[in-house]
């Protein structure tokens, strides 16, 4: 047995991942355990969890792998500082102590921290124990870790690879090829030219938090007009035909400063950045739309170039920018790849998984049998073009039992985190004397569907926790999408977040094409497509003339709670094979209402990491206006719960 622990840490969203004999056994982000969003500290809790899942001790590991190369990153920092001296001096001074204290001494630090994970609390004793560990410590390259996370768990035997993020060591984007057990990077774009940092600069300028508010900018874009596209292209950057960028760094200060943009940028766009929480105006909406349009253009150019350069039929993507599901949807529709697969933990957390798999397949040269080769995957598109999905043969190994093209990757639906047993849940409920009803697994889906159909908002905690930023039905809040009021009710009373933000639909994979302009897999909510024409409701001229958020309140389709102002939706397709209880709940809801779609949003409030434990879920349920809580087979009704004494939780989480 060969066990490999992958770690990403010290930048953004720390995580650990355990791979045993090539299988991803467990993966989790540190924030879920410490309740500190995007926690960047050493992932000691996530590591402990991963080891416990495989009943391993830190001493018994064979390999420990870190997702990037600290010395190369330091080299970039130093060189950039020298380039921009003296302007960059203050940010350099701010970064230096952390580098001197932790990052440059990474091997020692990792050994000491893992000794703590093994149960050694005393710092000196942990240091001593760490030195005794016999496993080999390896460091991956940042973009190679992303590329490995994109290709190895994908369904494909061979594919082109594209990684795009803010910055790793030097690379900000890379292209390559995955074949069998090999990943080869061919070209890279280098810091400070970066699509990720460009998007983050606009995230900053529109008043959202860099490294987490990018999603909000994408959600805001459909309210605006692409008014600033030509100004951005004239002054800020040149987009070449291959999708590479040349940015004009007179307008940005991320290379030398602690801010993303500077006075020249402010002057160009007519004023200082919006203050966080200040009113959002048409200007921010137009800026969001403009930077989103440019991002889509760059991603289309990059992927077309990758297609031409590699000659591959399939594409895998990772890196933070691969979470831009609007751009991904366009890549799917407009670039002639047969299929695309995107790593659900596309950001730096996924680097832990990528580097662990890279050790197994590249360093140890272990062969890889892709789901495609094993007959566990078949392109839905290819099937449709040739024989039609419904004609695909029964249980012949390449179709699933419900007549769909078989589909499997190695991510296990991204359900790679901790799960609570029935006895743990019952113990929790009994210890606190909380009223509940217990159902059999057979009737539970119908009971939940009844609640949804009655307009209740349901907290759903079942199975293993998701790895990556999206909740996929393991730790989700779900509701009826047919209600026009549900969107604002959920934003204001449950999530306590900005009312412009739309919600995402989870839809039965079998029915996705009837409800959306999409007929392929989107298991990780990483593709945006429009609501199907037949499901839309034509707006009256008066409704059409409404502006911004008022337009969002208009019933624009049969599922208004998940229909954005431009009719788009961020779709999660649900298969019974990977997510049985969630599929059963949606199917029961469909049988009751005719609608195979539910609203799915992550189980948390604004600024809070997604819930992990039963206790987290109960607390979030009681703090908000969620009506019912489903903990595996147990359902709790808010009306029956005893009073909940709580601190003012709004002071507990920093707004994101
Ligand atoms: Fe990255």
Question: What features would you highlight for this structure?
Answer:
single chain, 656 residues, alpha/beta, nine-stranded mixed β-sheet, globular, binds fe (ii) ion
Give a description of the structure.
The chain starts with a strand and ends in a 19-residue tail after the last strand. The strands form 4 sheets. The protein has a 9-stranded mixed sheet with strand order 13-21-20-14-15-19-16-18-17, sandwiched between helices. It has a 5-stranded mixed sheet with strand order 3-2-1-4-5, sandwiched between helices. α5 (106-117) crosses α6, α7 (142-151) packs across α14 (349-363) and α17 (444-453) packs across α22 (580-593). The chain is built from 23 helices and 21 strands. A hairpin with a 2-residue loop joins β20 (628-631) and β21. Residues 382-401 have low confidence and may be disordered. It has 656 residues and is an alpha/beta fold. Helix content is 36%, strand content 16%. The site of fe (ii) ion (FE2) has 7 residues, from α7.
Topology:
Elements: E1 3-8, E2 15-20, E3 23-29, H1 31-34, H2 44-53, E4 63-66, H3 70-84, H4 89-101, H5 106-117, H6 123-132, E5 136-139, H7 142-151, E6 158-164, E7 171-179, E8 182-190, H8 195-205, H9 214-220, H10 229-236, E9 237-239, E10 245-247, H11 263-268, H12 282-310, E11 314-318, H13 325-334, E12 339-342, H14 349-363, H15 380-386, H16 422-431, E13 437-438, H17 444-453, E14 458-461, E15 475-479, H18 486-495, E16 504-508, H19 512-515, E17 527-530, H20 541-544, H21 548-552, E18 568-574, H22 580-593, E19 597-602, H23 614-623, E20 628-631, E21 634-637
Parallel strand pairs: 1-4, 4-5, 6-11, 11-12, 14-20, 16-18
Antiparallel strand pairs: 1-2, 2-3, 6-7, 7-8, 9-10, 13-21, 14-15, 15-19, 16-19, 17-18, 20-21
Helix pairs in contact: 2-5, 5-6, 7-14, 8-12, 12-13, 17-22
Residues 142, 146, 165, 168, 319-320, 348 line the site of fe (ii) ion.
